[in-house]
Design goal:
The complex is a heterodimer of chains A (480) and B (519). Chain A has 480 residues and is mainly α. Chain A has 20 helices and 2 strands. Chain B is globular. Classes of the chains: A mainly alpha (480), B mainly alpha (519).
């Protein structure tokens, strides 16, 4: 009975697991069926989302397997966002990978496995289940990064990601063992209780190590150095995936562990988060200035954005968490949209271009694509009336409400540095002479998903504000 | 027509957006016509707005409210001050489109779209009644202006566009944090409510500086004015007109709408700062203007000097000063816009802004010389033109507060006469040393149609300013009453004499008396 109840709560994960295994079997027989398997994988994600939505309707805060996992509004919110981002990453990939000669059936399967890991991550309420989810997600990601084996950069990216990721996992595990040793339990709730009374040096060391490991996973400074290399080397659809779904999962996980396990001692972790947030904003902004490769630029942009998201966490309030979730949704739309635009940069020979020189004067030769990319850039820079502004606004509003005025002022001032390089993309596309290397995209999927995301980032997106506010507030309340 | 039921302001905001979307997809000739009709339609609506505006009615008229965007309230409404500035925007807009009719030949659709978006955002800034909505309109103007300067600008357009964008962005972001704090404090983003909220004196100072950071850059005040000459020089003619005509007024409007009534104590405390910067600006930028070799740069620096008179007028805390500042804003919007058009006329023919490349134009371009002279005089502030009314009122108001500040600021008029007449002499008079300049044709019908309406309004405002003072008088009085508790004592120690017992009694009707700014 107990087992049954737990399994019912885990329906989305179970569906994904069985789908992944079945598709793996299918792949063994039909190795060239990459497209079919992609479609099936998207269907599986859809089915899993349907179950998440159905459990969102009634069940609240039910924990499974004796408190290893929890099914709550926060987890469900994150899962939906992760599944949508993963589904988009699946849909945009086939043609790209076919061109690179790497559209193998394992790609959708790996994404599905990664999704299972992420679903476990966002619902974990125990250090052990957290670690299992994180590793499942990471191991799939390492393989995905080096998916185009013929490309040296892709292989390098995979290896680099693996080595540094293993280091980070080690740090996290070491921190977890310290916390377990000093708090006497691996369960978030029990750690929270243990921290209520007294926080010893050992526990603080544990927290620092855990947060360092997590900072690596969300590519926050000073643990960001893998990001540009991996983003540049990995095939672009995979990069789009890395920048969206795993980031949502890792941030959701960070929120949960910080609030549920360490929540009672805000002073212990708040300064760490503030420092990490400001460093990420500044390093992300300054590092991007000299980049010539657009994917590297987007990598620094993601570091920069993580900094803004963490400002919400630094407040430690319900409003702050709700703001982070709003920002996350908008961030996923912006970043996926930007990568979809980058994927359309194809030259006459069918090769993919990703340098600044290639998009020179793009607005003259491909006005639609240039306009979409410009929308994403201005949105990432947080310039109204684009929707990215709303994300920044709610986060800074939460910081002001929590009394973190210096943080808000420094953060928002540093965003001007970020605006500089987003403007540079627009400048190259609109002000410079046409290089005329990019041809019309023949991939309708990219054109349409890119168009929809661009519309969502335009002022039209403001119409979703009331709904977003209600949903994120509901999700954030689950943690308090 | 029942004006209260029709969301006129929303329609005025929607027309340019719709036209802009259309412009992107049609060929050049059609885009021009669409843009012109849309802006003329908006001008017509603006005139209707003005005719239906009741100066004695409610403080906020044509109000609209909709809850579309959650915490960002779609609340619009105007008072007399906003009305006059909206009128300025919709009046200049068709002229801008006309000024770009032939000089813009590449990417016409996108150009027109950018201008139309600009119009929406300008109207939005003046009509917004929600702090966040105001901010969105205020800040969003950066994007089209960045593109206008960057795509259609001159040689150094990229540097100028970056400078414009980042400078103004940095200023406004600090203001955003202050706005968020104010919304938390007051529990609402509704501007009319915030206007009557008393913020703690200690907080006021910080908030004032945060708003100052944004508006001083936008205005622009010395020493953060350096983006303006670059932006002006590089922008296409119509871009300069909009920049000088309306965008600079957003800074003044911000001071008037936010800094003064929301933070009266802080504003009073910081009068020395504002006056000090303004005095430096008047003298310094006038001297800089005197030595310019580039026509647009000269007018740009003169803008900074004129805007300094606006800031002096605004921070006088009295009726004349503030009314004068508003009139200077309107007048400067028209006159500097017209001067940029005048520069555009000869730039289109010779493709240089170098003053020394011209000379003796009154010989071959008499009509042009006449128009140019009128606007030169208006810029100097000759009685009978709009410039005089505004400058006189704001300096009269300033005299009640600080004699020295008034004295220094008044030198601006003398300096202004210096650099403007010097400019005019070098362009219109003297020997015709340059053969190509001497061969230029006079203004054509289209250019006359651009300049003549402005000339009419400039003279109208100079001869009968009551038309423009009537709608703003009550709103200025509201602001003055609001900030009276913090008003500075002033060093001129004027004695109020009851005019009924004065020895030489002059019979005036009451309204006329008000129009001249005396009480």
């Amino acid at each position: 009975m107990e087992l049954n109840a737990s399994l019912v709560l885990l329906r989305p994960e179970i569906i994904l697991t069985f789908s992944a295994l079945a598709l793996l079997l299918l792949a063994a027989w039909r190795e060239q069926a990459g497209r079919l398997i992609s479609i099936l994988a998207v269907t599986a994600l859809g089915a899993a989302s349907a179950f998440v939505i159905s459990s969102m309707m009634h069940a609240t805060d039910a924990s499974a397997f004796d408190g290893l996992l929890i099914n709550d509004a926060f987890g469900n919110f994150s899962k939906i966002l992760i599944f949508i981002a993963a589904a988009i990453s699946l849909m945009i990939a086939p043609r790209f990978l076919e061109n690179a000669g790497a559209m193998r059936a394992e790609y959708p399967v790996l994404i599905l496995l990664s999704c299972i890991g992420m679903a476990v991550m966002v619902s974990a309420t125990d250090l052990i289940s957290l670690y299992i989810g994180l590793e499942l997600q990471s191991l799939s990601a390492y393989v995905l990064a080096s998916f185009v084996r013929s490309d040296g950069r892709s292989a390098e990216a995979g290896l680099k990601y693996f080595v540094l990721g293993a280091l980070a996992s080690g740090m996290l595990l070491f921190g977890a063992s310290l916390v377990y040793g000093f708090a006497g339990s691996t369960s978030f709730a029990a750690i929270g209780v243990a921290m209520d009374t007294e926080v010893g040096l050992g526990l603080i060391f544990g927290i620092v190590f855990i947060l360092s490991g997590l900072a690596f996973k969300i590519s926050a400074a000073p643990f960001h150095m893998w990001t540009p290399d991996v983003y540049e080397g990995a095939p672009t659809p995979v990069t789009a995936f890395f920048a969206s779904a795993p980031k949502v999962a890792a941030i959701a996980l960070t929120i949960r562990i910080v609030l549920e396990a360490f929540g009672s001692q805000i002073l212990v972790w708040q300064q760490i988060i503030i420092a990490v947030a400001l460093m990420s904003i500044i390093i992300g902004a300054v590092g991007a200035i000299g980049q010539q490769n657009l994917k590297r630029l987007m990598a620094y942009s993601s570091i920069n954005n993580v900094g803004f998201i963490l400002i919400g966490l630094a407040t430690g309030t319900e409003q702050g968490i709700s703001a982070m979730l709003v920002y996350l949704i908008i961030y996923v739309a912006m970043t996926l949209g930007s990568f979809i635009c980058l994927m359309q940069l194809k030259d006459k020979e069918g090769g993919y271009r990703e340098e600044f020189a290639d998009i020179s004067g793009l607005s003259k030769t491909r006005p639609g694509l240039a306009a979409a990319l410009a929308i994403f850039m201005f949105s990432l820079a947080g310039i109204p009336p684009l929707f990215g502004f709303w994300g920044k606004l709610v986060v800074f509003n939460a910081a002001v409400a929590a009394g973190l005025l210096p943080l808000a002022v420094i953060g928002i001032t540093a965003s001007v540095i970020g605006a500089f390089y987003y403007l540079k993309v627009v400048k190259v596309m609109y002000f410079d002479d046409a290089a005329d290397v990019i041809v019309e995209s023949d991939d309708k999927v990219l054109v349409w998903t890119g168009g929809v995301l661009a519309a969502a980032n335009s002022p039209i997106g403001y119409l979703t504000i009331p709904a977003l506010g209600i949903w994120t507030a509901y999700a954030a309340r689950a943690l308090f | 027509m029942n004006a209260a039921d029709i969301p006129v302001l929303s329609i005025m905001l929607a027309i340019p957006v719709a036209a802009a979307a259309l412009c992107l997809f049609v060929r050049a000739e059609l885009a021009r016509i669409i843009a012109l009709s849309a802006t003329l339609l908006n001008l017509l609506l603006g005139v209707l707005l003005w005719l239906n505006y009741d100066p004695a009615g409610a403080q906020w008229q044509f109000t609209e409210s909709a809850n579309l965007f959650g915490p960002i309230g779609w609340r619009l409404g105007i008072d007399g001050i906003a009305l006059t500035l909206i009128m300025l925007s919709v009046f200049l807009m068709p002229i801008c489109i006309g000024a770009s009719w032939t000089s813009i030949q590449k990417r016409v659709g996108e150009y027109m779209a950018a201008f139309l978006l600009m119009e929406t955002l300008m109207i939005g800034v003046f009509a917004a009644q929600d702090l966040l909505l105001f901010y969105i309109f205020f800040e969003a103007g950066l994007i089209p202006m960045y593109l206008i300067i960057g795509i259609w600008g001159g040689q150094d357009r990229i540097y100028a566009s970056y400078k414009f964008f980042l400078y103004t962005l940095l200023g406004s972001l600090v203001m955003l944090i202050a706005m968020l704090w104010m919304i938390q404090f007051a529990g609402t983003a509704d501007i009319p409510t915030l206007l009557n909220t008393d913020f703690p004196a200690e907080a006021q100072k910080w908030l004032w500086f945060a708003f100052f950071a944004s508006f001083a850059v936008k205005m622009p005040m010395w020493p953060v004015h350096t983006w303006l000459p670059d932006a002006h020089v590089q922008a296409p003619t119509a871009g300069s007109v909009i920049l000088a005509g309306v965008l600079l007024k957003m800074g003044g409007y911000g001071f008037l709408r936010f800094s003064l009534p929301m933070f009266p104590e802080a504003s009073a405390d910081l009068i020395p700062l504002v006056f000090g910067l303004s005095m430096v600006a008047v003298v310094y930028t006038s001297l800089v203007a005197l030595v310019q070799q580039d026509m647009k740069k000269l007018i740009a620096y003169s803008s900074v000097a004129h805007m300094a008179i606006v800031t002096v007028g605004l921070f006088t805390f009295n009726q004349q000063g503030i009314e004068g500042a508003i009139i200077v804003m309107l007048s400067h919007g028209l006159v500097s816009g017209a001067l940029f058009l005048c520069v555009g006329v000869i730039y289109d023919r010779l493709h240089t802004r170098e003053i020394s490349r011209y000379g003796g134009l009154s010989v071959n371009m008499p009509k042009y010389a006449l128009m140019f002279m009128l606007f030169t005089m208006a810029s100097v502030g000759l009685p009978g033109t709009s410039g005089f009314v505004g400058e006189f009122l704001s300096l009269a108001g300033a005299y009640k507060v600080s004699t020295w500040a008034t004295f220094i600021a008044t030198t601006g008029i003398i300096f202004g006469a210096g650099y403007m007449l010097y400019l005019y002499r070098r362009i219109a008079f003297g020997p015709q040393v340059n053969a190509d300049a001497a061969a230029m044709s006079d203004v054509n019908g289209r250019e006359m149609w651009l300049l003549a309406p402005i000339a009419v309004v400039v003279l109208w405002m100079g001869v009968y300013p009551e038309t423009f003072l009537a709608p703003i008088r009550r709103d200025v009085a509201t602001i003055v009453a609001r900030i009276e508790r913090a008003a500075p004592v002033g060093d001129s120690k004027l004695k109020l004499v009851d005019p009924t017992t004065a020895r030489y009694r002059v019979v005036h009707d009451a309204e006329k008396n008000m129009a001249e700014g005396s009480h």
